[in-house]
Amino acid sequence: MKISGVDIRPGNIIEYEGGIWKAVKIQHTQPGKGGAYMQVEMKNLIDGRKNNVRFRSAETVERVRLDTKDFQFLFADGEALTFMDKENYEQITLDKGVIGEAAEFLQDGMDVVMELYDERPISVDLPSQIEATIVEADAVVKGQTASSSYKPAVLDNGVRVMVPPHIGAGTRIVVDVYERTYVKRAD
């Protein structure tokens, strides 16, 4: 499906110069002289390269539709992650680089959605929020107000996040996986 260069949105998968790219960030710019354009930061889903490209409104790109399949995360072995197809129970092993930094949030038995291009897995989407336990939290500095200051904390998976001052070690919280931010206290 062809779309105009200025209609690209973050998360869109497009075909560009013979590769499959995912739009990561976009910035629409209207200079004083000349036509408007869309500055798109893209990541190649096959080899991981990044690229910044300007698309004018007259340019069109091919938007790619990916097949999606439900998988379950089984275990990690070094840099290799093993998933199981929930339909036929086949196992597939991927490199951590396919998922990126979000791989730190994988939990045994977690349901994920794998995106496939020509039957080849090219990306894995985790749930946007997960629950985690704080194992270490800095002490509150006297005089800080609750509304303006957050303190660093370490989760049970080793990830550092900023949390409100009233949250201490041993507390279960909800964390946004892709923004790496505190959302709320877990119920």
For the sheet with most strands, the description reads: 6 strands, antiparallel
Strand order of the largest sheet: 1-6-2-3-4-5
Overall outline:
flat
Give Rg in angstroms.
20 Å
Number of distinct beta strands? 16
Strand proportion, as a percent range, falls in over 45%
H/E series, N to C?
A: EEEEEEEEEEEEEEEE
* CATH fold group of the largest domain: SH3 type barrels
Count up the domains: 3
Give the terminus-to-terminus CA distance: 43 Å
CATH architecture of the largest domain: Roll
The CATH class of the largest domain turns out to be: Mainly Beta
Keywords: Cytoplasm, Elongation factor, Protein biosynthesis
Subcellular location: Cytoplasm
Pfam family, one: EFP
Protein name: Elongation factor P
Outline the structure in words:
This protein is mainly β and about 190 residues long. It folds into three domains: about 1-65, Roll (SH3 type barrels); about 65-125, OB fold (Dihydrolipoamide Acetyltransferase, E2P) (Beta Barrel); about 130-185, Nucleic acid-binding proteins (OB fold (Dihydrolipoamide Acetyltransferase, E2P)). The protein has strands at about 1-5, 15, 20-30, 35-45, 50-55, 60-65, 65-75, 80-85, 90-95, 110-115, 120-125, 130-135, 150-155, 160-165, 170-175, 180-185. The strands form three sheets. The protein has a six-stranded antiparallel β-sheet with strand order 1-6-2-3-4-5, with no helix packed on it. Strands 9-8-7-10-11 form a five-stranded antiparallel β-sheet, with no helix packed on it. The chain is flat and about 55 Å long. The relative contact order is 0.13.
